[in-house]
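Interim report, section 4.2 (structural modelling).
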Amino acid sequence: MIALPDIRSAAAVIAPHVVRTPLLPFGPGWLKPENLQPVGAFKLRGALNALARLENRAHGVVAYSSGNHAQAVAFAARLHGVPAAIVMPDNTPAVKIEATKALGAEVFIVGITERVERAEALVAERGAALIPPFDHLDVIAGQGTIGLEILDDLPGVEAVVVPMSGGGLISGVATAIKSLRPDVRVIGAEPELAADIAESLEAGELVRWDPLKRAQTSADALRDEPSELTWAHISRYVDDVITVSEEEILKAVTGLARHARLIAEPSGAVAVAAQAKLGGGVAIVSGGNIDLALLARLLAA
Amino acid sequence: MIALPDIRSAAAVIAPHVVRTPLLPFGPGWLKPENLQPVGAFKLRGALNALARLENRAHGVVAYSSGNHAQAVAFAARLHGVPAAIVMPDNTPAVKIEATKALGAEVFIVGITERVERAEALVAERGAALIPPFDHLDVIAGQGTIGLEILDDLPGVEAVVVPMSGGGLISGVATAIKSLRPDVRVIGAEPELAADIAESLEAGELVRWDPLKRAQTSADALRDEPSELTWAHISRYVDDVITVSEEEILKAVTGLARHARLIAEPSGAVAVAAQAKLGGGVAIVSGGNIDLALLARLLAA
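Predicted structure of the assembly:
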């Protein structure tokens, strides 16, 4: 597991390359707008920390992702002058493929079921290093830097609401917060359609949901499930989970546009939807890479 | 005219109540996203400074505005426990009227030509203080705090691009920047349809444009013209002006949505449109209160 010194060290490593996002007042609480990072998501923090600490970098890095992790690894690799190969499923929106290519990465498009296999093949062929999206200590420590910033900016914080899927973000943030301020509540947010962690915490053990069931949520970045590593952090540190409906998620997307002038993807608005139910606290807006045609439809409705 | 100590003093006064906006990397330059302020515009800075320094506050404050200044004064007045009366023209979008009322202000709707007269009548009747949108030293000093923040965050800055209309924002920002760093270029941005300051700087004297002509730009917050006070600052400090077409303005609005996940109103994107022509520098995104139906149309196009 990671500990506070890992997160402090990550903060120093990534500081020159990430946006120091402010807290924005929002209704009775605050937003931490990680959608303002250069690739549009918090994922940049973990990817930058992992790349910076990578010893075996001569043969490049490999990642598999349909979303924000792809761009984060491509961005971090370019910054460190390391070649990046990104394996993306063939249902990835063209705009995300183009954005990843624009960051200088080599992109491999494969069937959704083949992506892990293909990534592992690239690792084997090239001697490259795999950068996983959440199941990695350096990635988790990078995401945890958000927790340090929240405590620095708002010493009176009572609760932090964090979206959960693979669990990398909340593992890092919860470790930072509970290490320094055990009195601050760390609350996970999940779509009702992908509420496997809520059920796991209830059961006291990791419960697996059918991936096809989880795939139904519009929060397409929250369709993953925890690893043993992230579950160890979650089960130790997370106080509670709030689940939100699809309607509540989309309402949070339009609410952020209307009242905070922020563009969030559905996954990025899940903690904001949960915050509305909680009635306060800091909600992490985790990403902003929404299909703008979808946003246009939501705003016109 | 204002000077650096006025701006430093304003910074201390408003710091607890404004968002310390970060600089966001954007293409070859940076954005200063003032649309993330609580009322969605930089105007909050000047209004807060003016309210804080107001001696005659027992009888409340009065402002006339169809836009961001109305909400800024309402917000600042509520914070200081001072009653606010806001005179708005009858063509103000309902959403802005509701937002101003929601901040606790008393709103008077009048014909567009009657607003100054009605505001002055309220001042006379009540003994209230008028808070003008730009023709006021404390307002200008408040806006200037943006300049201090840019220099703090980016010591290597070469140019700052600032939207111009009444000139309060650029008067403050240019004073801050030229007082500390005369080598940094301060560049005004104007819609081609309201380029009276560009013409004035060319002529070396304040040139007045027909208000009906200026009213044609979609940048509805940039339809004002400088006062003698703001012109004194502009003519002394501003290096150059870049004018932008209506098409360039709307393209900047969609570019901010797509690449920076920020919602800007057309006026708020004018400096970004000018930045694209300059090829770098810091552009101030001055406001984000766009009609969301308009934004939806732009994003769907």
